From TrEMBL:
UniProt domain Dehydrogenase E1 component: residue ranges: 111-414
Family according to the record: Belongs to the BCKDHA family.
Protein name: 2-oxoisovalerate dehydrogenase subunit alpha
Organism superkingdom: Eukaryota
Pfam families in the cross-refs: E1_dh (PF00676)
GO molecular function: branched-chain 2-oxo acid dehydrogenase activity; metal ion binding
Organism: Amniculicola lignicola CBS 123094
GO cellular component: mitochondrial matrix
PANTHER family, sorted: 2-OXOISOVALERATE DEHYDROGENASE SUBUNIT ALPHA, MITOCHONDRIAL
Function statement: The branched-chain alpha-keto dehydrogenase complex catalyzes the overall conversion of alpha-keto acids to acyl-CoA and CO(2). It contains multiple copies of three enzymatic components: branched-chain alpha-keto acid decarboxylase (E1), lipoamide acyltransferase (E2) and lipoamide dehydrogenase (E3).
GO aspect biological process, one term: branched-chain amino acid catabolic process
EC number in record: 1.2.4.4
Catalytic activity: N(6)-[(R)-lipoyl]-L-lysyl-[protein] + 3-methyl-2-oxobutanoate + H(+) = N(6)-[(R)-S(8)-2-methylpropanoyldihydrolipoyl]-L-lysyl-[protein] + CO2
Length: 470
């Protein structure tokens, strides 16, 4: 996987910019001319006249007629450029513009990326030791999650896939909250009802992660439509956008295409962020698609699109900030950003990636370029970081993670009543019957079912069954 072309100019591609007038003149910077753009929202087709020079069919407004039959051959077109701010050595390409990030914030972002990588390493080892059932690391993609989250407003609503722990960390999710969810203990916000790494936070405006692939994408489009109405009805409040993260593998699902089409036709304020890390579990991108990545699909749906070097956290931040501004223009419009990265780790603790890729390939990427080392080079170039600070940071973060881990591991599991509550306001008769049956089984076979680790033990079911309807 390689970046064919890298651009230092931030320019989101707007599909209508390619439109041309009937006389052949290029459209204005806004993508419109006296005859209108290639597609005008809300406009209906009108009957074509005998001497018309452009298409007036409702399905392709303003397409110019031609008697020269030429198929569009994608392989003959230039690839969409990849935007970046600094090179692999941490050198800023456009010194006049700079990185648009204060030194203090840059250090904070670096510390969070290091913290995330340490947590990933320790949790991966804990799973191999049998202390956790499942985990997913973010190695190679830390800059995408942390960089984009740092550029969003706290009230923006976020929909994650499963590799966005950095989004939670940057938004203020505590290490104790990560660990409580991983152990599914009584302090877990989901009370043990979800898989590990399926976090959620109402306080941080992040929707709970779902195991099913790509379902969050249409959810985000729908939420963005609701936010659009709220933004219009409450002009005195900070306008909000919906932000959706997903991998390039999820973009192969029908939900992706439905969501982008809904977002485009409804003109909703939604930022779609695709983490293109080269692999959908064991499937490389060469077996996933033949087009120019995921960015090319945005233009097809009439969405402003940009491809970004995901190893460059400053490019990620600037792109996300500009995407948010565009998403709120004219009442709302969707934006697609394809963040390019390389998945250094295995897909999950259930995967052995060396079964489908060479270890030397992974080691080469780890050595050559990743978001953490690139930002560190920039920090060192400004005398903001050194080996002493690095050692102190890693030692402190490791202690913090292990402390939170050990405390969460000792906590009791949620009470058994939580297997039945939280669905209906009152337990149904069928639920009461199931709870009673479970209680009888646990009491009949105490040696087979250890309920000691669960808060309240069997007595928790007794209390549930004795409660009267509200």
């Amino acid at each position: 996987m390689s970046f064919r072309y890298v651009s230092r100019t931030l320019r989101l591609r707007r599909p209508f910019e390619a439109a041309r007038c009937v006389n052949g003149e290029v459209t204005s910077k806004a993508g419109r001319c006296g005859h209108g753009a290639w597609q005008t929202v809300g406009r209906r087709g009108i009957a074509s006249t005998a001497n018309a020079e452009r298409v007036l069919f409702p399905g392709a407004l303003n397409s110019q007629f031609t008697n020269d039959m030429q198929f569009i051959r994608p392989q003959s077109l230039d690839a969409i450029p990849t935007y970046r701010v600094m090179d692999q050595n941490g050198r800023v390409l456009d010194k006049e513009v700079g990185v648009e990030t204060e030194d203090g914030l840059a250090v904070e972002l670096y510390q969070n990326m290091v913290c995330l990588s340490i947590m990933d390493l320790l949790m991966f080892e804990a799973q191999r030791q049998g202390r956790l059932s499942f985990y997913m690391v973010s190695a190679g993609e830390e800059g995408i999650a942390i960089g984009s989250a740092s550029a969003l407003h706290p009230t923006d609503v976020i929909f994650c896939q499963y590799r966005e722990s950095g989004v939670y960390l940057q938004r203020g999710f505590k290490l104790s909250q990560f660990m409580n969810q991983l152990f599914a203990n009584r302090k877990d916000g989901g009370l043990g009802r979800n898989m590990p790494v399926h976090y959620g936070s109402k306080e941080l405006n992040i929707q709970t992660i779902s195991s099913t692939l790509a379902t969050q994408i249409p959810h985000a489009a729908g939420a963005a439509y609701a936010l659009k109405l709220q933004n219009i009805q409450n002009p005195e409040q900070e306008p909000r956008v919906a932000v959706c993260f997903f991998g390039e593998g999820a973009a192969s699902e029908g939900d992706f295409h439905a969501a982008l089409n809904i977002a485009a036709t409804r003109q909703v304020p939604c930022i779609f962020i695709c983490r293109n890390n080269g692999y959908a579990i064991s499937t490389p991108t060469s077996d996933q698609y033949r087009g120019d990545g995921i960015a090319s699909r945005g233009a097809g749906y009439g969405i402003s699109t940009l491809r970004v070097d995901g190893n460059d956290i400053f490019a990620v931040r600037r792109a996300t900030n500009e995407a948010r501004r565009l998403a709120l223009e004219d009442g709302g419009k969707p934006v697609l950003i394809e963040m390019m990265a390389y998945r250094v780790g295995h897909h999950s603790t259930s995967d052995d990636s060396f079964a489908y890729r060479q270890k030397v390939e992974v080691e080469d990427w780890k050595r050559r370029d990743n978001p953490i080392t690139r930002l560190r080079k920039w920090l060192e170039g400004r005398q903001l970081w050194d080996d002493v600070k690095e050692k102190e940071l890693r030692s402190a973060k490791r202690k913090d993670v292990l402390k939170a881990f050990e405390e969460a591991e000792k906590e009791m599991k949620p009470g058994l009543r939580n297997a039945f509550e939280g669905v209906w306001e009152d337990l149904t008769q069928e639920q009461r019957m199931h709870a009673k049956e479970l209680k009888e089984i646990l009491e009949a076979y105490p040696a087979e079912y250890e309920v000691g680790p669960y808060e309240g033990g069997v007595g928790d079911l007794d209390a549930l069954l004795e409660e009267k309807k509200r």
